[in-house]
Amino acid sequence: MTSEDTAQKSDEASRYEDNMNNLEQENKVLRETIFQLKMEVDRYRSPALMLADVVEVFEKTAIIRVPNGNRFLVNKSSEVGEIKTGDLVTVEQKNLTIVDKIESEKSLEADKFMIIDKPKIKWSDIGGLKEQERELKEVVELPLKSPELFKKVGITPPKGILLHGPPGTGKTLLAKAVANSTKSTFVEIVGSELVQKFIGEGAKLVKEVFKMAKDNAPSIIFIDELDALAAQRVDMGTSGEREVQRTFMQLLAELDGFKPLDNVKVIGCTNRKDILDPAILRPGRLDRLIEVPIPSKEGLKEVFKIHSKNMTLDKSYNEERTYKQIESMSGAEIKSVCTEAGYNAIRAKRTKVTQKDFDKAIEKVKGKEEEENTYKGMFG
Ligand SMILES: Nc1ncnc2c1ncn2[C@@H]1O[C@H](COP(=O)(O)OP(=O)(O)O)[C@@H](O)[C@H]1O
Ligand SMILES: [Mg+2]
Hints:
The protein is an alpha/beta fold. It has helices spanning 3-45, 130-145, 147-153, 171-181, 191-197, 202-215, 227-230, 239-257, 297-308, 319-325, 331-347, 355-379, and strands at residues 50-57, 61-65, 71-75, 88-91, 98-102, 115-117, 160-164, 185-190, 219-224, 264-270, 288-291.
């Protein structure tokens, strides 16, 4: 073979090689295209993502609640960033893996919707609830006044308390008294109002309430009618129910988001403890339950004395008889009895209140109670 021949051959070889490289390159591009197209087909095939609320977050998994109210323990996809209780997330329909977090912010003038106050109620304004007073002092007053004591002993006080019991028994009074005795800002929201009036804004409002409380610490956040917000829901058919659920999730997130020795305490209040979602009562949330019952025989005397202490009582007034008659009344009803009795005296142009005035008043207040009970029986 001549050297010319060799040169020609190697020329040809390198042409082939070039050609092959090009083809390989082309092949790669085509394969890539196929891959992309397959992905796209998959995307078209895949079902829509579902929305769910995050109930609790663990390292690799999370508990979510889907729109029908059922809860699932699911995986988090590696792409989803940090999520926390209360977040709204998208999940795959088949295995409910969390795919993404949805950010939604709305503006709202929160201060219109919460009552911020420095209450004047004193412990001595409350009758028959000594044990409840003692407990509130221990779990609210002590940590706010001497946090160093808790650090030294090495225990954490509860962050939140649930006052539960029939209406008109002094739950609001207790919360206000402890705010007063700790010189705390009293931030009040009412569950039913939050649900009825602030549709679409509930979660944001809850966030604002906690921010307000922290900015004005020491603070007590008082959530009246908590059950309107935190009732266990089975049916989540309507968007209204889902909205309540979002608000509730935000409340849980806020509760989880501050420390036991931060200068904020949350006091929830309900007369329907039976329907509460147990999530709100978990450790670290409203985990101290204080029952506020109808006054005992001794208690009602104290309550009555508080509300009648400025009244001028006639000779005919019979203490024992009155106590007997007001048995099983709530504090609010006992107060009504005193006010009504006073009005009866005024109507008769007297300044002294007689036993008759009390008898009439008690009858009236009891009548009202019965009316309410029949009403409840008919529609409840
Ligand atoms: N234990 C009590 N001692 C004195 N007054 C009471 C008591 N419980 C209720 N009252 C009276 O009834 C009113 C309503 O009580 P409140 O604390 O709002 O009841 P709740 O929050 O339990 O429904 C109070 O403002 C107070 O006048
Ligand atoms: Mg109340």
